[in-house]
Amino acid sequence: MFFECSRLIDGNQPRLSNGITVTDVDGDGAFELVVTGYATNNLILKWDGSRLVDIAGPLLADASGCAVAIAAADVDGDGREELYVLNSDRASGPKEMGDRLFACFGKHWLDLLAQPENAGMANRIAGRSVIAMDRHGHGRYGFVVAADGGPFRLFELSRRGRLEDAAEDAGIDLIGAGRGLLAMPFLSDRVDLFACNEGGPNFLFRNLGDGTYEEIAEERGVADSRFAGRAVTAVDGPGYGGFGLLVGAWEGPQRLFVQRSGGGFVDEADPEMSFPGRVSSVIAADFDNDGYEELFFNLHGEPNRLFGWRDDRWQAIDLGDALEPKGLGTGAAVADIDGDGRLELLVAHGHGEGGGHGGGSPQPLSLYRTAANHNGWLRVLPLTHYGAPARGAVVTCTANGRRQVRSVCAGSGYLCQMEPVAHFGLGAARAVERLEVRWPDGMTAIVENPPIGRLLTVPYPPE
Questions:
Q1: Choice among 192-196, 240-244, 279-283 with the minimum mean pLDDT
Q2: What's the CA angle centered on 202, arms 195 and 172, to 5 degrees?
Q3: Structure confidence by residue, pLDDT tens digits, 59-100
């Protein structure tokens, strides 16, 4: 499936890398890849037409940080995404180094968590993942931080422009060893939240419609308390009728939870897919544009795995160069870096065994492409009414009578956040009959017969 093109990353030296997000850092309308570094600088990799070059200034590079996870979202409603960087200088419990929340004012970046008025919001508990979540559907996001040994936190901006922890108000302030997070409408019409935990049951929070949540993991069959959940992503499987949950475990069985008509989930991973391994991250994406997602398992110190929908079932397929049998995988993310309509895969490496906090062996980043083909494609970028990417929106594409569904990524896999674009491979189809975009507040827009082979931006509908 993949061939390596890591040579396209300028100055790609061995380093301890963890999380990745895809966002427009410099405000020019093109997305960059932001890669966190542990006891080394964060990278902002920009495509200059022939390669990826680092454009990070001193503040965002933050070379003294112990960065683990990262997420981007528009917190203040200015149409630009902020960056939340989760630092953890130890594996669990109290930590010394605080997190960063970088916001851009004009061309000047500022750490909101370093401002005196936000001193009380410093996060002093180690964590592993952070995700964007618009719980009210207003287009102003908060950041959910999965703590390890403390309550989950939800950082939002108050009407006075100060940060506050709204986790208790939202009802998600449970204590766990949080790992992978997923925020999207998979239980209700608003943004729900799934959280993997290590050493305890997973959490499944259903949005009650007013920005508050109830925890129903046991009731819906996804608590899975015996195994160390590490990573999660949403899957649009044929015949599912809704999103499935692909859950990767650290040295435990992998799960593919499929939702049934009654609302409960059942595990449909066959023995080959469920085989235990040290899974660091999982990704569902249509890499070959055949109209069906592939499922990528990024493992730590073991060969990676890839499954495709073949002959009406999930089957292991050849990874090619992305096998990485000795890769110390941490985070991974997808994006169409060069605008050719095919997704690239970026894999980070470095952390130590069982950890997400450094202490491993430095390795370079790995970048992979797939071979060119004649399959059609369409990419959709929904915007909030502030003009920022509408993370958590759901896009449905109908082509040749077949429906595909994608959620615009607010954060998934583990430590990471994919590009804020719904990517559809079309296979042999040369036309799309209909697109439906549903925003986190329930607003919908229909686009009939959209052009294919392009990135289509869909603004929030006017009132």
A1: 240-244
A2: 55
A3: 999 998 899 999 999 999 999 999 999 998 887 778 888 999
What does the pLDDT look like over 134-184, one tens digit per residue?
999 999 999 999 988 889 999 999 988 899 999 999 999 999 899 999 999
Cα–chain center distance at 404: 19
Judge contact between 286 and 418, C-beta under 8 A: no
DSSP state of 221: T
Q: Using CA atoms, how far apart are residues 166 and 161, in angstroms rounded to an integer?
A: 14
pTM over 0.85: yes
Identify the pLDDT of residue 359: 54
Residue 22 identity: V
Q: What is the pLDDT of residue 93?
A: 79
At 410, list the tokens: 């607010």
Closest to 182 measured CA to CA, from 282, 292, 294? 282
* Token output for 331: 């985070």
The pLDDT tens digits for 226-241 are 889 999 999 998 878 7
Sheet holding 43-47, edge to edge: 17-23, 32-37, 43-47, 52-54
Distance CA 194, CA 171 (A): 13
Q: Which residues contact 49 (CB under 8 A, 6 or more apart)?
A: none
Determine which of 56-60, 82-86, 125-129, 401-405 has the lowest per-residue pLDDT on average: 125-129
- CA 188 – CA 378 distance, rounded (Å): 27
The pairing of strands 43-47 and 32-37 is antiparallel
User: Residue 369, class by beta-carbon neighbours within 10 Å (0-12 exposed, 13-18 middle, 19+ buried)?
Assistant: buried
Rounded distance, CA 231 to CA 261, Å?
A: 25
Let me know the angle formed at the C-alpha of 453 by 449 and 457, rounded to the nearest 5 degrees.
Answer: 70
Comparing C-alpha atoms, which of 201, 155, 135 is closest to residue 174? 201
Instruction: Give, rounded to a whole angstrom, the gap between the first and last alpha carbons of the chain.
Output: 45
Task: Give the C-alpha separation, 70 to 19, whole Å.
Answer: 6
Residue type, 252: G
Distance CA 103, CA 162 (A): 13
Tell me the C-alpha to C-alpha distance, in Å, between residue 355 and each of 158, 188, 375, 459.
34, 33, 39, 40
In this prediction, residue 354 carries a pLDDT of 39
